[in-house]
């Protein structure tokens, strides 16, 4: 999920989704009930598909870069 969320072209969508994913995993990391874990995995898989679709939509209807995105692009070496 993190790898796919990194593909968001919009800085705001990218940081929001990364933060939500990390928070959800931290919140449930101590879970031991196999049934709940199975439910969490199922929920994560469905969310992964949503993220993939949203990344494609974001690439199709790309918005102009914000000042922050432009600044980050100039600082961060291209990969």
Automatic annotation (TrEMBL):
GO annotation (BP), single: iron-sulfur cluster assembly
Complex 1 LYR protein domain boundaries: 1-49
GO CC, alphabetical: L-cysteine desulfurase complex; mitochondrion
A Pfam cross-reference name: Complex1_LYR
InterPro entries assigned to the protein according to its UniProt record, in alphabetical order: Complex1_LYR_dom, Complex1_LYR_LYRM4, ISC_assembly_LYR
Similarity comment: family membership: Belongs to the complex I LYR family.
Protein name, as recorded: Complex 1 LYR protein domain-containing protein
Species of provenance: Oedothorax gibbosus
